[in-house]
Design a protein that fits this description.
This protein has seven helices and three strands. By secondary structure, the chain is mostly helical.
Amino acid sequence: MPGALFGAAITFGDENLRIGLDTMAAHLTDRHINMAARMQTGYIHHAAMQYWISIARRMATREDQVAQSVVGSCASALVRYHQSAFQPVVTDIERLYPAWDFDSAVSVKQHWRFEEYGKLIEPQLHEIHESEAGEKIFGEVIKVWCPRSGE
């Protein structure tokens, strides 16, 4: 259950939750993170993508089995986001609080088509892939998000 809640909070796509997510992550097992990676809404938010990338970046250089499991979960989340999207779009949003004080509690800051977003995150994905201490799995994330990488 904690993993599902953590995953749902990530998919919410709110950068304001980052501190809470980091605090929560410190208390989760690799199995919880694996469950969190399965949480999908069909909408992809920039903050959610960046959160999974940040976890992978922190854990990629560690050689222990738990860290490698977490890196695998991050890769899985990023690939699943791409595969389960209702539209090939990543959106950067800002949630306004308290929501009842605003006509629209969600403000869209930017949209990227998948191809554009892949170019944006490509350096981050390559950095993770190159730093992976264990099995190099981020190559699969690169194939999905940056299909023209290497051309």
